[in-house]
Write a structure and sequence with these properties.
The chain is of the alpha+beta class. Helices cover 40% and strands 27% of the residues. Strands 1, 2, 3, 4 and 5 form a 5-stranded antiparallel β-sheet that branches.
Length: 203
């Protein structure tokens, strides 16, 4: 009895669907069939995707820290000479570099401003005549020097890399390093102790 009732309901629903398609025409029937196919494909994709097993793979990234047995180099002084044509940019970069040095605990020995260079170029205002009518152009180069003292080679490398990467456009930097090295073993003791001079006259 229940099977016959369900069969009748399905027949009625199919009759309603086909009666609606008869009013709409063959194009609507084709669109409905295409839409039904897409729904069937989507349902199959959803069912099949649930059967896959996804696992996370952790790749070991290469470490950027290298450990060596050699002792770190000691730098007595590191001098940064920055030059540019805009004085406001130099002032801003000086504040940035000194603040970065203070954050890293680097001893700032001195910050000074060397004398600027002025280059003048005089040309004629007219091409062929009016020799007295001239135009003068001037190019000024400002300098700023930052001296750091008593720091290790690794600290200097980190600081210089950070500072040079943030160097603004229009500025150039020159770095001078003064390293401290160990006295060689062959000159620790005076040479006359190993080879004493003969008392007799030399022949």
């Amino acid at each position: 009895m229940a099977a016959s009732v369900s069969f009748r309901r399905e027949c009625c629903s199919l009759a309603r669907i086909f009666s609606g398609f008869s009013h709409l025409g063959p194009r609507a029937l084709f669109a409905y069939s295409a839409h039904r196919k897409c729904n069937i494909i989507r349902s199959h994709l959803e069912i099949s995707s649930s059967s896959f097993h996804t696992g996370t793979v952790f790749l070991s990234a290469p470490s950027l820290i290298t450990v060596t047995e050699e002792p770190d180099t000691l730098l007595q002084r590191v001098s940064l000479l920055v030059k540019g044509h805009d004085q406001a940019v130099l002032d801003s970069y000086e504040f940035f570099a000194t603040m970065a040095a203070k954050e890293l605990g680097i001893n700032i020995n001195k910050v000074h401003e060397p004398p600027k260079d002025m280059e003048r170029l005089t040309v004629l205002k007219s091409v062929h005549i009016f020799k007295k009518h001239r135009v003068q152009y001037e190019m000024r180069t400002h300098y700023r020097c930052i001296e750091l003292s008593h720091l290790t080679g690794s600290t200097a490398q980190v600081f210089l890399e950070y500072v040079q990467r943030n160097l603004p456009e229009g500025l150039a930097m020159e770095v001078t390093k003064t390293a401290m090295e160990k006295v060689p073993d062959h000159i620790l003791e005076p040479m006359w102790k190993e080879n004493p001079a003969e008392d007799g006259p030399s022949q």
